[in-house]
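Suppose you are handed a protein chain with no further information: no name, no annotation, nothing but its sequence. What can you learn? This example shows the usual starting point.
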Amino acid sequence: MNSLVFNFIKRAVIVPAVCAALAAAVLIFAGPRAVAKTAAVGNKTSNTVKTLDITAFSAKSYEGFSELKSGDFVGSVSSEDIGFGEKAISYHAAEDGSIIMSKASKEPWNGGSLLLIGANTSDSFKPLHRCQIGDTFKVSFYNKDVYTYRLTKILPCEEEKKLSSHLGENRLLLCLQYYDFTNLGNDYFYQVFVAEMV
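A reasonable first move is to predict its three-dimensional structure. Written in structure tokens, the prediction is:
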């Protein structure tokens, strides 16, 4: 067999056969994983995590938010509608990227509202991108009750100084923090999810 015929057979038959075999192997081994991952993304509740590790926080019993110190564990927030498992809330400041409750918040057991802030890049708050009007959130406090809120409004771009103006009675504000690259300072803007107590 001369080299011209062999090269033709190699290009026309052998190479496509090897490529088809490799593609089949990839589909057999990687296909089920890709399908499972796609199903998990489509099913909002499949990613819900029920356990909450608070070992990184200082946790103490409190009657009012004024008793908390910066970085103290406040409670948790979750939403089964968006596969948002229990996420820890810390008071005023945190170094680990957890969700922060602003000092502007008032106790819901006294009719107050909550202002929770999380970074857009943080794993804690990423699921908020899937929110839709009508989704519900549960906020559980360390030594208090659990409160349920229903999402009523999404505000795409708010300045930090305007966040407290959305606080009213029995309201929850979930604020996704984005770095503002248009400003030369270290400024942020926020996507705000407004939910009313039910």
